Task: structure prediction
Amino acid sequence: MLKSHTISTASDQLLGGNFKVGRDVLFMTFMFASILMTLAYIQMNTTLPVFLRDVHGIPDQGYGYLLILFITQKSYRKGEKWSWYALLKAGVITWGSLIGYRVAIGYVESVGIATPILGLALLFIGLALPARAILGK
Result:
C-alpha cells in the first residue's frame, strides 16, 4: 500500500517537471509558433470553402476537387514524391472507407461492392504506372 507522502511527492515531481518545461524558452517559442500555425490552418480550411461557395459559386465538394486538381496539375506532373503519396493516401482512404461502409451495412451484392473495388484497382493502376519514375528519383 502506498503511503500518502509518497503520492504527494510523486505529484510534486510531476508538476515540477511541467514548470521546468515552461522555463525552456526555445521550446515554448516553438510551441507558441505551432499553435499559431495550427490556428491559421484551421481558419483557412474552415473559411476558404465558405468563401469559394459564397463568392465564386463553387459547391462544397468543389473545394476537394480543387485541391486534387492542384496536386495533380502542379506537383504530380513535376514528379514530386509527396504528391504521389498524397494521391495514394487520399484514394485509399476514400475507396477503402466506401468498401468498409458497404461491407458494414451488408451491401456486398455484385454491383454494390464491385464499384468501389474497381475504383480502388484503377487508383492502384494509375499510381503504379508512373511510380518508378516518380519514386525512383
Residues 1-60 form one domain. Helices lie at 4-22, 25-56, 62-78, 81-105, 110-128, 131-135.
